[in-house]
């Protein structure tokens, strides 16, 4: 005798494992995850550094002095730890995070650009101030084209400019040829600069093999491929001959 209740009970018993199987595949299936690692290291200079570059001051000697000494190759100790070398991860895209204007890269003009070497993220703003009692003309070029060219009177308002392109920006003062500097702009957050002890640290790098580049204003570029592991700390050493 046909029983609707018994038929429904048997149908549920036979169909329930199939439904649970589909749900299990959906929950336990492959999930794409991104892991990141940290790169730590040092940059060295082998040998005795050359003497500083001495430039004669022609204008405004009363304030700037008769000459300016620039030592771009700054060594920490006998081991040759090199400061002011910019280290970056190449071939990576931005993290997708918005550029937060927490602290602007600032170039202060005191008969010198300070810091002479600076870094920034593409999309950030740079601020240039004249803190001298004399006139300066700050000139910044990007790939041979003028990015900024402005005269700054003593006590004038700071100049604020947004950095729209990544790459090397060269800086100098048209009025004082001994004033020079460099600004490196990156399209991602994976960059750092060696400190006074020649050390650097870059966090949150996507796992995988990446070219790591070292840039120095005088010594040029070094590069090597490093395998960044998931949630690990990779040690790397660069040496300029």
What would your notes on this structure say?
With 241 residues, the chain is mainly beta. The protein has one domain (36-240): Immunoglobulin-like. The chain has helices spanning 4-28, 61-64, and strands spanning 36-45, 53-56, 67-70, 86-89, 106-109, 113-114, 117-121, 125-130, 136-142, 145-152, 159-162, 167-173, 180-186, 191-193, 199-206, 208-216, 220-228, 233-240. The strands form five sheets. The protein has a five-stranded mixed β-sheet with strand order 7-13-12-9-10, with no helix packed on it. A four-stranded antiparallel β-sheet has the order 14-4-16-17, with no helix packed on it. The protein has a four-stranded mixed β-sheet with strand order 6-5-8-11, with no helix packed on it. Residues 4-33 have low confidence and may be disordered.
Describe what is shown at a glance:
By secondary structure, this protein is mostly beta strands. The chain is 12% helix and 45% strand.
* CATH-scheme architecture: Sandwich
**Strand arrangement, largest sheet?**
7-13-12-9-10
The share of residues in helices is 10-25%
Under CATH, the homologous superfamily reads Cupredoxins -  blue copper proteins
Domains counted in the coordinates: how many? 1
Find the count of extended strands (DSSP E, 2+ residues): 18
What layout of secondary structure does this protein have?
Layout: H1 4-28, E1 36-45, E2 53-56, H2 61-64, E3 67-70, E4 86-89, E5 106-109, E6 113-114, E7 117-121, E8 125-130, E9 136-142, E10 145-152, E11 159-162, E12 167-173, E13 180-186, E14 191-193, E15 199-206, E16 208-216, E17 220-228, E18 233-240
Parallel strand pairs: 1-18, 5-8, 7-13
Antiparallel strand pairs: 1-15, 2-3, 4-14, 4-16, 5-6, 8-11, 9-10, 9-12, 12-13, 16-17
């Amino acid at each position: 005798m046909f029983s609707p209740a018994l038929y429904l009970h048997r149908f549920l018993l036979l169909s329930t494992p199939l439904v649970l199987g589909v749900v299990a595949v959906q929950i336990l299936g492959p999930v794409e995850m991104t892991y990141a690692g940290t790169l730590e290291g040092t940059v060295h200079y082998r040998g005795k550094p050359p003497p500083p570059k001495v430039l004669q001051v022609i204008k405004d000697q009363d304030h700037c002095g008769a000459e300016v000494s620039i030592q771009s190759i700054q060594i920490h100790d006998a081991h040759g730890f090199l400061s002011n070398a910019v280290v970056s991860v190449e071939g990576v895209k931005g993290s997708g995070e918005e550029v937060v204007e927490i602290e602007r890269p600032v170039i202060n003009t005191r008969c010198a650009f300070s810091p002479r070497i600076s870094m920034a993220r593409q999309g950030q703003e740079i601020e240039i101030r004249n803190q001298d009692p004399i006139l300066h003309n700050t000139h910044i070029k990007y790939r041979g084209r003028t990015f900024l060219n402005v005269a700054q009177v003593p006590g004038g308002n700071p100049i604020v400019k947004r950095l729209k392109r990544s790459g090397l920006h060269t800086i100098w003062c048209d009025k004082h040829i001994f004033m020079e500097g460099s600004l490196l702009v990156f399209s991602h957050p994976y960059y750092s600069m060696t400190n006074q002890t020649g050390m650097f640290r870059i966090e949150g790098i996507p796992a995988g093999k990446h070219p790591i580049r070292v840039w120095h204003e005088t010594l040029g570029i070094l590069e090597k491929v490093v395998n960044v592991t998931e949630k690990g700390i990779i040690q790397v050493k660069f040496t300029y001959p």
